[in-house]
Amino acid sequence: MVAAVKLRRAQENILKARPYTFRLRDVISQLALRAEGTSHPLLQKREEKKVLLLVITSDRGLCGAFNSNINRKAERYVKSNVKGHESIELLLVGKKGRDYFRRRGYPIRKEYMGVLTDPTLERIGEIGSYITGEYIDSGLDAVYIIYNEFKSAVQQQVVVETILPIEPPQSVQETIKNPIDFLYEPDREKILNAVLPLYVNIQVYHAVLESLAAEMGARMTAMESATNNAKDLINRLTLIYNKTRQASITKELMDIIGGAEALK
Questions:
Q1: Predicted TM-score (pTM) of this structure
Q2: Which residues in the chain come in under a pLDDT of 50?
Q3: Position 54 in a domain
Q4: Is 63 a catalytic residue?
Q5: Structural domain count, the chain
Q6: Do the beta carbons of residue 206 and residue 145 sit within 8 Å?
Q7: Which whole-number Å values give the CA distances from 108 to 88, 103, 171, 187, 243, in the listed order?
Q8: What distance lies between CA 20 and its chain's CA centroid?
Q9: CA-CA distance, 264 to 87, in Å (whole number)?
Q10: What is the pLDDT of residue 35?
Q11: Distance (Å, whole) CA 160 – CA 148
């Protein structure tokens, strides 16, 4: 019941955030397409040698395969790409991901706990600012994010998306084949410096909201399944108890009747 209430709130937050997120993504994609050839570091594509992988899990269990699906997906990504990159480091959000990758000795660059418990834009902005700063200052070539996308209360989908470098999707590239550049005020560099980090923050914020709703849906389903299993177990044990009790009563009656027959 608690998970159901939290799921409804998380769904409302997603519905509120999605239009802004998708529209901002479209605007940034068009800016990125028109800004090809610019020297802005968040738009430059390089050979992927140093990669940062942002993995979003929950801080608590009792939510079915929610966390294990993400952890296995991230682990498979690292194992399948480790030979093609110089280094793959992890940026972990959530205790379940931290505990999983700590036990296995994977390189962890930074950890954030309690984010899904209190998913404020200010808190998530810290993560986005850290990603942007590390990408510019530490020579990262790409940043990917792995999270559970909310489909319904009983369905979540593990998603792997590119955060950096910012690249317009194929659909935008096909729509705008011969882009006409905008007029920028005050100038293009200042606008890109202000808008592109905001885009990274919003992408992380959207992923956290999706993960929170998916977590609550998975927890609600897991708790419902556990409740049903407990009821089935109680019914089976009650049946066994009644059969055993009936057999004991029958045996006692047979002993009494047998004793009475022997006294005749």
A1: 0.81
A2: none
A3: yes
A4: yes
A5: 1
A6: no
A7: 9, 11, 34, 38, 57
A8: 20
A9: 94
A10: 67
A11: 9
